[in-house]
Each structure stands twice: as structure tokens, then as C-alpha cells.
Amino acid sequence: MGRRRWPVPEIATLGALGMFLGAADGELAWFADARGLERTVRDDRLRHYRYASMRRPGRPVRVIERPKHRLKQIQRRILHEILDLIPAHEASHGFTRGRSVHSHAREHTARFVVVGLDLEDFFASIAAGRVYGIFRLAGYPESVAHALTALTTNRAPAALWGTLPRPDDPAQIGAHHRLGRRLATPHLPQGAPTSPALANLAAFTLDRRLRGLAASLDARYTRYADDLTFSGSARLVASAGTLRAAASQIAREEGFLVNERKSRLATRAGRQLVCGVVVNERVNVTRHEIDALRAILHNSVAHGPRSQNRARLPDFRAHLMGRISWVESLHPERGVKLRREFSRIDWD
What we know:
By secondary structure, the chain is α+β, with helices and mostly antiparallel strands. It is 45% helix and 12% strand. The chain has 16 helices and eight strands. The strands form three sheets. A four-stranded antiparallel beta sheet has the order 4-5-3-6. The longest helix is centred in the C-terminal third of the chain and has 17 residues. The termini are far apart.
């Protein structure tokens, strides 16, 4: 072990790593995919991940890489007993204990202008080399750091690429092919329990530099996953172009790419949103979201909840309670009224 900057467990050898993870030497090599089978084999039974894709209007498809049960167990052990002990930058609010979308949005309430930027392919753009650097910085020797990196990164199967739909917008073809190149090399898989924590740690220097940029413009900066948000006084409007250009340059230098098509600027004269939360005067829910939920609850009372479960969710009751709880966390008074309407639904 080298110098341990954080109170991570001491794991000096591959044998010790296997004992720590409850995996024999052969099992450790298998899940680390030392033979590169994930990328090349056609038999799903020999792969450690299951794959799914999600279409996004006007944007490249999102690829979800979910580890199978045993690898997920190993990754959760790495997450809770190693990565949770390494702090993310204070500007990071996503996937961080004690912080949330709510805390991210709250930093930008009652500001004259809010500027938002979006990072392209946030997880897939973080290569294995950066993950290896995190484990080395934590004090782990090369062999252990290599194994931990292999257990938490992935190369998507070559055959997967041919099954992914191309974006409808021709302007997104370039981004689509960049995603393909990222998936073909070892990267953080979106869907693995360790990826959010590792992504936050990989973005530590990015957050530090963007926080400094914001301070130089008398602005605030926070990040929730791939969402970069700045806010400030009326003077920031005149500097918005400089801010965007400088933030994009910093992101490139840190290995990320800003999606220029998703940049946004909103003054207090209009509706200001941060991750879907209204922040003009206080954190709040959009009127559209409230009206839609109120209509679902009203119709569930009048016609029964089954009539409103158009997506055929297996636990529609829990789904509605989750949406009500989200509203209640941002606007307690509205949450109480929605709960009152929810209590009138006849679930029998």
C-alpha cells in the first residue's frame, strides 16, 4: 500500500483483494474479464452484463449496462467499503450522501440568471485509465488498482452497436459515433452501482476548476451528474458567452465534452429550471407536473386506479406515492393536498 489519503481498507495484494471481496483467485480473474470475453463472445451466458437501450428524442440513444447478480454484489462491496470513504467535491450533488437534486437546485434559487450546461455521455466518457488513477491515489498498489478497475469498468459487446437505433436528427450522428467509440473501450458502465461514485471522483478536478471559474465571475456553480449549473446576478448575462466558452474548454481539458445543443440560459423574467425543479423564488414543482398528477389522482378516485395505470406498472400505488413524496419534498402544502386526494382512492 502507498499513502492512504482516506480511511480505505488496506489491500496490498490480489490474494487480499480476493479475500476482501469473498472471491477466489479464479473467480476474481473471471469477473475482471482478463480474457476480454465481454466484448467478443456471442453467448449471453458468458457475459457479466445485460444491455438495454433507451431512445431519447433528438439525442443519441442511452445504453444501460447492468451487471449480473454476482458481479453486482462485488461492485456493491467496492462501493460501500472503499468508494464511500473517498469524498467527492462539495460542488457535486448527485449520488452523494446528504445531497440531492433538491440541494443542487436550492443553490440557485432567487438568482437573476441561471445558466445550464450538459456533459455528453457522462459515464461512458470516463475511461479505465482515470478509474485506475483513483484507486492508485487511494493508496492501492498497481496490481490491486488494475483489478479494481477491471471489476468496475466494461467494454460493451461489438455486436451491441449494430442493434442500437441511429438518432433521427442528422446533427446527432457525430455524437452517436462518439458514443460507439466510448462503448468500445473500457469505460464506466451506466447501470453499475460503482459508476456514479467513480464518476464523481473522476470529475473532482473538473468541479474544482469550474467552481473557480464561477467565483471569478461572481457566480455559483454546482453539478448533478452530467448537469452543470451556474447562477448569478444581472452582470452574469453579459458574461454568459465567456462562461460557456471557458467551461467547455475546461471540460475538454478534463476529458469531458459539453453538449452545446443543450446549453440554456434563463433570467428571472421567465421560468428558471434546474434538473426539472423551478428555482425562481424557491424550489418548486412545475405547474404542468402538478396538474398532471392532480388529474391522475382525480381520475383514479372517479374511475379506479387501474384506468390510470396506462404504463401497466407493477406497483402503481407505490409509483403514485413516490410522485407525491417528490412534490411534498419541494412544496409541503401541495403535497398534503395530494395525499388527501390519494387517500380517497379505492384500491380494492
